[in-house]
Amino acid sequence: MRSVILSAGKSCFVACPGCYNYFGRTVTETSQVLRFAAGLRERFGIEKITVGGGDPLTRPDIIPLLTGLHDLGLRIHLDTVGTAFLGTARIRFMGTGAVDQVAADDVVAVSDLIGIPLDGSTDAVQQQFRRHATVASQLAVLSLLGKVGARICVNTVVHSGNSGDIAEIAGLLSGFVGIEEWQLFQFMPIGPLGHRNRERYLISEGEFQRAVAVARDNAPGHVRIAAKSAGGRKHRYLLIDSAGLVWTPEQSQAIVWHSEDANDRRHLIGNVSDADILDRLAALENAVEEVPA
């Protein structure tokens, strides 16, 4: 089974011109999401779910959702900018208003790993990709999570604007003992924004691997490096948007990344509330397995 990524919220505290995701206009009821997750666990044996953006901290009942997933026996990786951990946070994308502070220790209690983005060592570099997130705010989130005992993963999207900044980013990580992993993602030019702004961020496989090598040479000794190339992530994700739509990126069957894979199309499978959604997913998985390597 592919890695399952649930978009818990329909809004975000930042605005990323290279975002690969689709934002739903509504938020599916938690009971429906939990019923779907229970079905995935029972039928496909999934053991982990990634709860990501739209930022999960914008969801009003994020703690009940995480608690319900945790009670199903799932490992939970939560990806968030983390802004609402620090206090009342303004919504910057796909919505208006603000979100009340979310207690970090409540989230840590029902999450196995918390992923925090850091895409530059200075605001000038960081905000090329992740607007409205300052380096100071991200370091403050890392510090707060460390104090409440979180297991932390730092996520960096490697693109043409920050590939020369990797050593400097590594230097910022040394003071945070709670960081266990540093994930480097090669920019993937998909989705409505990622595809539209692809020329600003595209980076070759060779450039990405050089950035990974720099990360390995400069990261603190207690931090493991995970390299996520664009080609290596093909056909690996099953995504659910906040409205409950289940989808995968529309990509060629080839193992390596092809130019045709850079598009803004998605293959819609159904909705978490559909009675036959698990059967549709089984058919999809069987079709992938039948494609020659």
Structure description:
- By secondary structure, this protein is an alpha/beta fold.
- It has one domain: TIM Barrel.
- 32% of the residues lie in helices and 20% in strands.
- The protein is built from 10 helices and 12 strands.
- It has a 10-stranded mixed sheet. A two-stranded antiparallel sheet has the order 4-5.
- Helix 1 links the parallel strand 1 (3-7) and strand 2 (48-52).
- Helix 1 (30-44) runs parallel beside helix 2 (62-71) and helix 6 (166-173) packs parallel to helix 9 (205-218).
- The longest helix has 15 residues, at 30-44.
- The chain is globular and about 50 Å long.
- The two termini are 17 Å apart.
- The mean pLDDT is 95.
- InterPro entries: Aldolase_TIM, Radical_SAM_PqqE_MftC-like, rSAM, rSAM_sf.
- It holds the Pfam family Radical_SAM.
- One of its GO terms (molecular function) is iron-sulfur cluster binding.
- Keywords: Iron, Iron-sulfur, Metal-binding, S-adenosyl-L-methionine.
- It comes from Streptomyces rubellomurinus (strain ATCC 31215).
